[in-house]
Amino acid sequence: MILVGGGILFLLLATANGAGYRYGVSDQAFYIPVVEHAINPETFPRDASLIDAQGRLMITDEIIALVARLTTLPLDAIFLAGYLLSVALIGIALVLIGQRVSATPWVVVAILAALTLRHRIPRTSANSFEPYFHPRMLAFGMGLLAVASLLRRRTWLSIALVGATALLHVTTGLWFSILIGVALVRLEPELRRLAIAAAVAAVAVGAWALMAGPLRTSMTQMDDVWLQAVASKDSLFASQWPLWAWIANLALLALLWWAHVRRQGSGQATVEDDALIWGATALVAFFLLTLPLVVARFAFPVQLQISRVFWLVDVLATIYLLSLLVGRRVARAVAIALMIVSVSRGAYIMLVERPDRSLFSMRLAESPWEDAMRWLSRQPVATHVLADPGHSWKYGTSVRVSATRDVFLEDVKDSAIAIYSRDVAHRVVERAAALGDFTTMTPDGARALAAKYELNFLVTEQRLDLPTAYENRQFRIYSLKP
Predict the structure, then answer these.
(1) How far is CA 195 from CA 192, 199, 432, in A?
(2) What are phi and psi of 469, to 5 degrees?
(3) With contact defined as beta carbons under 8 Å apart, do 47 and 407 qualify?
(4) What is the pLDDT of residues 180-229, one digit of tens each?
């Protein structure tokens, strides 16, 4: 009963500190449409190439689509279940890791409380926790379970969990494979030959994929237009990071080593701890070794977003720093303090910063925008929509999520997908230039865009001299062609 209550509290605090669970937001502007397209390939006839630019690199969409077909459950229910599963796996893994690094139960409580304090890893585009379903978070939970297995010397279980992590989210799986792989090689000498053979095979497969396989277009240098399309993504090129971001991220590894040395001095550290710290060091070394390729703007290393390795180093540094709390009274005081901070921060976020949000928004929230999207969703599947390119962050969800219809431009997500495709990057730049300032849209400008790009409807808050197809108290949907 205590474990169940603790798990529910962890869920509530992590969600509150992330400003509440919401369906259809942020990266789900990509993940929901790619699943919808996997369920029904007839959707997104114009945007399929854009969606597939990143979707072809993952299998999670096919897995979720299969679950949807077998269970007939709506996607919002499946995504909520995925979120709850992700949080459960992360919580269980943290407990198992905490029990291994410390014999004091209050240290485990402190670790759980600390991990509810969502924060951004500086200039990496990764948050310590996401308050919505993201395959990366589910993979993160699997990866942490692999860490817990490693600390218990359950070698093959750890390897299997890393494999599951890679299946769920390939780059998160890559980071955990480096972390766990290096640790296992240090722990298990008999695995070294196998590790060398696996590394050679991985290099061979990777070379084939890059030269002749599905990634053959990835080892090109990003041209000026491509770079223009992703210019808003300040996490991609570490060479452009400010000094404080470098210091903050590299300090994570320094703190991890400091905690490890302290634990060694007090007799707390085990050989498994030592192996894991070397695995984390290998992650940072991998980041530094591949940095010249990123600086040279080679597409594939940029697409890997290797700076996200600091996400794993961040959680390990937190765990091992808190494991230094050897005294029961001190550990209890720190754990209670972290709990108070987490509760206070979560309450402030939900009641003061975001009073308009509920703790769990499990489906698309009712609004004039959603009303307009419902109308569009009833139009033919080939309907092509023109909307404010910032509609996703302005109104809460994207046209692709809420209406399941093609949209001319959704600047935040389209520019993110542009990382993975030169053609998408050129499309984003070309369409942004053709559109110009959406707020100054004129009837003639809308008609010209409609003629060139086969647009059917314009969604806007403006009043224009165009045929009105639908309107509500905030939005008007204008017909642009029969």
Answers:
(1) 5, 6, 47
(2) -95, -30
(3) yes
(4) 999 999 988 777 677 676 667 766 766 676 666 666 666 788 999 999 99
Q: Which two tokens stand for residue 449?
A: 């865009």
DSSP bridge partners of 222: none
Q: Helix 135-151 vs helix 75-101: angle between axes, to the nearest 10 degrees?
A: 20
- Over 90: is that where the pLDDT of 4 sits? no
What dihedral do alpha carbons 20, 25, 30, 33 form, nearest 10°?
110
Q: Please tell me the distance from the alpha carbon of residue 56 to that of residue 433, in angstroms, as a whole number.
A: 28
**Is 150 exposed, middle or buried, given 0-12, 13-18 or 19+ CB atoms closer than 10 A?**
buried
Query: Cβ distance 155 to 191 under 8 Å?
Result: yes
Residue type, position 57, single letter? L
CA angle 383, 385, 390 (to 5 degrees): 150
Range in 196-210, 405-419, 458-472 the model is least confident about: 196-210
Determine the average pLDDT of the residues in 441-465: 94
Stated length of the chain: 482
Task: Give Cβ neighbours of residue 337 (< 8 Å, ≥ 6 apart).
Answer: none
Count CB atoms within 10 A of the CB of residue 460. Answer: 21
Per-residue pLDDT tens for 119-167? 999 999 889 999 999 999 999 999 999 999 999 999 999 999 999 999 9
Q: For residues 128 and 114, what is the distance between their CA atoms, to the nearest angstrom?
A: 10
What 3 state SS string does the chain have? CHHHHHHHHHHHHHHHHCCCEECCCCCHHHHHHHHHHHHCCCCCCCCHHHHHHHHCCCCHHHHHHHHHHHHCCCHHHHHHHHHHHHHHHHHHHHHHHHHHHCCCHHHHHHHHHHHCCCCEECCCCEECCCCCCCHHHHHHHHHHHHHHHHHCCCHHHHHHHHHHHHHHCHHHHHHHHHHHHHHHHHHCCCHHHHHHHHHHHHHHHHHHHHHCCCCCCCCCECCHHHHHHCCCCCCCCHHHCCHHHHHHHHHHHHHHHHHHHHHHHCCCCCHHHHHHHHHHHHHHHHHHHHHHHHHCCEHHHHHHCHHHHHHHHHHHHHHHHHCCCCCHHHHHHHHHHHHHHHHHHHHHHHHHHCCCCCCEECCCCCCHHHHHHHHHHCCCCCCEEECCCCHHHHHCCCHHHHCCCEECCCHHHHHHHHHHCHHHHHHHHHHHHHHCCHHHCCHHHHHHHHHHHCCCEEEECCCCCCCEEEECCCCEEEECCC
The structure's pTM equals 0.92
The candidate with the shortest Cα–Cα distance to 464, out of 451, 450, 479, is 479
From residue 411, give the alpha-carbon distance in Å to each of 387, 392, 432, 478. Answer: 11, 9, 8, 21
Count of CB atoms situated within 10 Å of the CB of 261: 12
